[in-house]
Amino acid sequence: MNAQLFALIFFLNVINFAISAVVSASSDVVDKELILTEKEKIAFEKFRAAIMPKLEIEMMKHDLYLLRYIRAKNLNVEKAKRDMLEMLEFIRVNNIATIMDEDFSDMTDDYPFDMDILDLKGRPVGYLSTDGAWNIRRLVLQGKQARLRHYLCKLIFGLMFKLVEINKTQPNVTKFSMIFNFDGFNAVQHGCPLCVSTYLTFLELYEKYLPACTEDILMINSPTPVYMLINIIRPVLSEHTSRALKIFGQNKRVWKPYLDARIDPDKLPDLLE
């Protein structure tokens, strides 16, 4: 074997090793989630067998979703079954299966939400900014709390539906992220008691129906009231949600590098440049 051929083979082996390392690293988190203790395996199999025939929405049929769900219920199969049946009723009553086809033209202009962003690993990212938008107080005073809650369902489940579609071609993509930008925060429009209940509703919907499905829940340009609220509710959040929830103040030099390391700056809204 001549020196040039040897060098070429060596180079190709190095490239192959590098590619294998990247693939291994990207799947490592998923693999760890799929490692079950004997107790988890028994609980998961019982739960899956009992609930699978009743599931219609594609996202709920994924083993990883069901595994996260039973773990969120501390492996209590009966509780998981009861809560899942309640969730199925919620999905039926609120038409969640077709919610992405609903007309929300009365909401989208004043309450914009971007779910077309992907991070550097291909995970979907939802983005919401209070800058000149999301006058929650006005909506509540108009008696549209139920409409707002339904709209929030579209945002939460919309990200999950998008994740399921991406997962078909990229199996290692199993989570989504959310960014809440509090730039332009107004204490009257965004900080009233009724407004706070809306933020809590958002977290409640996520924790109740999509446990452990987020990589990050980022809050940037957060004013003092947001810090105070998160500090109050964090102890009652699940361990995963608390870990995913990361709050940054108004110092762009702190939160911008964190975002840039995860999302191509060119893919982010102009407000984050």
Automatic annotation (TrEMBL):
Q: Which Pfam family is an annotated match for this chain, by its short name?
A: CRAL_TRIO
Keywords, ordered alphabetically = Signal
SUPFAM superfamilies membership = CRAL/TRIO domain, CRAL/TRIO N-terminal domain
Q: Where is the signal peptide?
A: 1-20
Record keyword 4Fe-4S present? no
InterPro entries, alphabetized: CRAL-TRIO_dom, CRAL-TRIO_dom_sf, CRAL/TRIO_N_dom, CRAL/TRIO_N_dom_sf, SEC14/CRAL-TRIO_domain
Q: Which residues form the CRAL-TRIO domain?
A: 103-273
Name the source's superkingdom: Eukaryota
Q: Which PROSITE patterns match?
A: CRAL_TRIO
Q: Which Gene3D superfamilies match?
A: CRAL-TRIO lipid binding domain
User: PANTHER family under this entry?
Assistant: SEC14 RELATED PROTEIN, SEC14-LIKE PROTEIN 2
The protein's name: CRAL-TRIO domain-containing protein
Species assigned in the record: Orchesella dallaii
